[in-house]
Write a structure and sequence with these properties.
Belongs to the NAD(P)-dependent epimerase/dehydratase family. It comes from Streptomyces hydrogenans. InterPro entries: Epimerase_deHydtase, NAD(P)-bd_dom_sf. The structure is a single chain. By secondary structure, the chain is of the alpha/beta class. It has one domain: Rossmann fold, CATH 3.40.50.720. Helix 3 links the parallel strand 4 and strand 5. It is globular. Bound molecules: D-galactaro-1,5-lactone (15L).
Amino acid sequence: PAPRTLLLTGAAGGVGTLMRELLPAHGYALRPLDVVPVPGAPDAVVADLADRAALREAVRGVDAIVHLAGISLEADFDAIVTANVTGLHHLYEAAREEGVRRVVFASSNHAVGFTPRPRAGEPPVPVTTPHRPDTFYGLSKCFGEDLAQLYWDRHGIETVSVRIGSCFPEPTSVRMLSLWLSPADCARLLHAALTAESVGHTVVYGSSANTREWWDLSTARALGYDPRDDSEAFAEKLLAEQGVPAEGAPDDLYLGGGFTTPTPPRWP
Ligand code: 15L
């Protein structure tokens, strides 16, 4: 049967807030969780990924987990390890102990951020491209994908790892024209990842059907994802405001853009 009750971790975060609005229309009852109180959700679980007992209680009885919690920008190595490595292990252990069979893991384009962005005429980047993290943050997403693989091979817990591009209400840079995942398409992609049969551990890229796409959405489409939005609607305005990235600039060279620089965007 299709999953209906979801634990949504990181429910107070950027993507979490958008998904709290949009996932119920796909038929889900949400159990939101965050390390801080979730605005407008007094029943949300407030728990840290360090708290194994709280996680075990939080996953009990849900059909699936959408894991958006953790640090989502660059930070000190120890902080990244605590939240995104140890915390992820705690969550999967809770899932294993409580018999939850499906996880959707928010990976990131920054797991492959040092991959050169394809030029005109070059093929889109496939999901099989080698990991090339651009930050400790991206490195933690590489680890997360491997942890998901381990829990599938060893324990039969299925995961779709979604390498999310840029999920915001609108793209705000020229780079994001290639990586934008509209909130509505994000909800569609999560729904596909939750309902597709026999996913084992599947890696997909997460973006809308962007005219300027850099990567290969075929593994996402194979799950049943049918994106409806295209960042091209914002292209004229953004190009007029910002121009194309200069040749050799980070946004020109790499998928990860500014995350590849000595001063990547930092948490919090
Ligand atoms: C990410 O992984 C970040 O969490 C998000 O804040 C954006 O910066 C996004 O990548 C991006 O690359 O645009």
